[in-house]
Design goal:
This protein is mainly α and about 220 residues long. It folds into three domains: about 40 residues, Homeodomain-like (Arc Repressor Mutant, subunit A); about 110 residues, Tetracycline Repressor, domain 2 (Orthogonal Bundle); about 35 residues, no CATH class. It is about 65% helix and about 0% strand. The chain is built from ten helices and no strands. The radius of gyration is 22 Å and the shape is flat. The chain starts with 11 loop residues before the first helix and ends with a helix.
Length: about 220
């Protein structure tokens, strides 16, 4: 495969940008130093002059994704600010479907990751949440975001004509007499024009934020 890379000088940033773009296209498992070198138009050992290991490359890639996620805006109420951040997180994870399992797995997080966590914790505390509720809120929100992103990345399609065709094939494979509710759900909802799995994200996010807001108000009443 011929490289499409230009002959711009190699830098650590160019290595990481190339790695992210390649992973977006072929997935993280298929990303090797040799494949990355081909993409950049250099020899494999040259990459190690700029980034010391593949683990360091992966760490830098995760940092790139964190840097794409909007921090909670300080001028908004805490629930609206967290909502902005969560929507931005989903967009970034959709753009980089390989990233979700890695976002919280690094034992040596970089500055973009740390800045992100600091801003999230500060926003939750600004909303008056106790440390215990802050911990619950952060865990529930990110579990929801990462889980939803994982489903979107692994589903064959999440909406449009392609999804309708897949749903029709799936519906034809099961017996409607044995699975009447599943059949009705598929025919009467999933196969309707405009259906998209992704529209459930904001619905679920708002349920979580409403619940957290009620929990925060209850905490304040108990403490008063």
């Amino acid at each position: 495969m011929a490289s499409t890379a230009t002959h711009a000088p190699l830098t650590a940033d160019r290595v990481l940008d190339g790695a992210v773009a390649l992973a977006d296209r072929i997935g993280l498992e298929a990303l090797t130093i040799r494949r990355l070198a081909e993409e950049l138009g250099v020899k494999p050992m040259t990459i190690y002059h700029y980034v010391p290991s593949k683990d360091a490359i992966v760490g830098g890639m995760v940092e790139r994704v964190f840097s794409e996620i909007d921090l909670p805006p300080e001028e908004l109420t805490w629930t609206k600010a967290i909502r902005v951040r969560c929507l931005s997180s989903r967009r970034a994870l959709n753009q980089h479907p390989w990233a979700a399992p890695l976002m919280e797995s690094r034992t040596s997080p970089g500055p973009a990751s740390l800045r992100h966590h600091e801003a999230m914790l500060a926003c939750l505390r600004r909303g008056g949440l106790s440390w215990e509720l802050t911990a619950h809120a952060y865990a529930v929100l990110d579990s929801y975001i990462f889980g939803f992103a994982f489903e979107e990345a692994t589903l064959p399609s999440t909406g449009g004509e392609g999804f309708a065709e897949i749903a029709q094939e799936m519906a034809a494979a099961f017996d409607p007499e044995k699975y009447p509710t599943l059949t009705s759900f598929t025919v009467e909802h999933v196969l309707r024009p405009g259906y998209s799995f992704g529209v459930s994200f904001e619905f679920g996010l708002d349920l979580i934020l409403d619940g957290l807001n009620r929990a925060a108000k209850t905490e304040r009443l108990r403490g008063s």
